[in-house]
Amino acid sequence: MRALVIGPLVSLALLVATAAPGAASEVGTGSLFLNGRVVGTVVTPSGLPAGTGQDPFYKVANGAPGQLGIAGVGPGEPGFHGGAWEVFVVSFNPGVTPILLTSATAVSAAQAAGEVTVTRVPTADFRCPITQQG
Q: What is the pTM of this model?
């Protein structure tokens, strides 16, 4: 599978920075996980007011190598709002060896198993469409 891979910290910083008021007006591209596969995205300079995101986006703070952000829904799925992302930060709990999380289902399973903590961060909400399905 060929895909541009941006480190998770760099990608979230880019996404949040472009979503902030007064951010640069440049458009960038990146990759994220959706339902176990890598998809493309366009990082636009259009932000969302804090707390108004509707599509779950999981940023893994201390994940395994190769971890990308995770879209909870995508184009054609019920409840998809075009990439109006509501941001959740996922952190592996102390003593847990991080694994690659590639879907919202994997995040939910890890949370149910006590492996991760998931925290809503409304001030990080942003807009960013998915451009290609993997």
A: 0.80
